Amino acid sequence: MARDDENDLTIGSAQGPYDIEALATPPEDLENSHLDLGSVLVPVVEGGQVTVEMSAEHQPEAVYLVTPHGRISVSAFAAPKSPGLWREVVTELAGSLRDEGAQVAIEDGHWGREVVATVPGAAHRFVGVDGPRWMVRCIASGPDETADELGRLARAVLAESVVRRGTDPHPPRDALPIVLPPVLAEQVAAAQEQMQAEQSAAQQPESSVPAGGQSADAPPAGGAIDQLAAATVYGEEPAPSRDDEPGHDVEPDPEDEAPRSSGSAMQRFRRNRRQ
Fold first, then answer.
1. What CATH number does residue 14 fall under?
2. Residue 250 has pLDDT above 70, yes or no
3. 227: which of 4, 117, 165, 221 fits an S-S bond (Cβ 3.0–4.6 Å)?
4. CA 75, CA 192: separation in Å to the nearest integer?
5. Does the bond joining 83 to the residue before it have cis omega, within 30 degrees of 0?
6. Contact predicate 111/156, CB 8 Å
7. d(CA 96, CA 143)
8. How far apart are the first and last CA of the chain?
9. pTM for this structure?
10. Sheet holding 40-43, edge to edge
């Protein structure tokens, strides 16, 4: 893809989320400021930590930035060439969350509509942005009392995130693949072995499993390299498919004969509140 240098954007200008093809900053220069997750590069939060959620099949399912205000995840999805996917998702997501019993509000944010869902003791904000053949979505979950601070932090994270769409074909609404950095992949492999050992000993399947010998209560690390080395990996009980959860791939696939609703939001919310 040809690039117009006059339109190149620079990390730190808060003009994101950026498309990597339009970014003047080389990806290698972001090694200690961003978590490179393949399809999306997410800025680390000072004083934060990284956690990896494992699926019931022991596969990495999500990567979170854990902050004093709550936790944040950023995911990228394939989208049509024409914009407007996030507006469609907002309507579907809000309806599903209401059906699950959450109180839902649609607010106007920096990039347009944001979905805010509250359940007793917790608030969850969904922010989406349409890009060139991609849509990026940020989810911020935390206690009620820190909802405003977490919302501001989530927008700041999203404004400095970078999307790597790639050239592979993906149906619209498909989640773009997450590729763990080598350091984090090693932590996940070690944690998987420990999880399996603990499960065989009949311990709780959702207990935290620190990776790399780090305690879940370890002091927050610094840049991306330090935070990756201190990442925590945790597993969960078998749950509905990510395709049915607004905490993950909430959007129904238009290729399905009968498109699904955005599914069981409250299950994700209950798990978030236990963290």
1. 2.60.120.1690
2. no
3. 221
4. 23
5. no
6. no
7. 21
8. 42
9. 0.76
10. 18-19, 162-163, 40-43, 34-36
The 10s digit of each residue's pLDDT in 37-50 is 999 999 999 888 99
Q: In sequence order, which residues have a C-beta less than 8 Å from that of residue 119 and are 6 or more positions away?
A: 101, 102, 103, 266, 269, 273
> Cβ distance 160 to 16 under 8 Å?
yes
Count: domains in the chain: 1
At 71, is the secondary structure helix, strand, or coil? strand
Measured at the CA of 147, the angle between CA 144 and CA 150, to 5 degrees, comes to: 140
Cβ distance 241 to 268 under 8 Å?
A: no
Question: Which pLDDT tens digit goes with each residue over 176-198?
Answer: 988 888 888 888 888 778 767 87
Residue 246: C-alpha distances to residues 94, 98, 174, 263 (Å): 10, 12, 13, 7
Element (H, E) at 49: strand 49-54
Question: CB–CB of 243/253 below 8 Å?
Answer: yes
Q: Helix, strand, or coil here: 222?
A: coil
Number of Cβ within 10 Å of residue 111's Cβ equals 17
**Is the Cβ–Cβ distance between 78 and 133 less than 8 Å?**
yes
| 3-state SS, residue 219 | coil
Residues with Cβ < 8 Å from 201, sequence gap 6 or more?
A: none
Q: Which domain holds residue 235?
A: 5-274
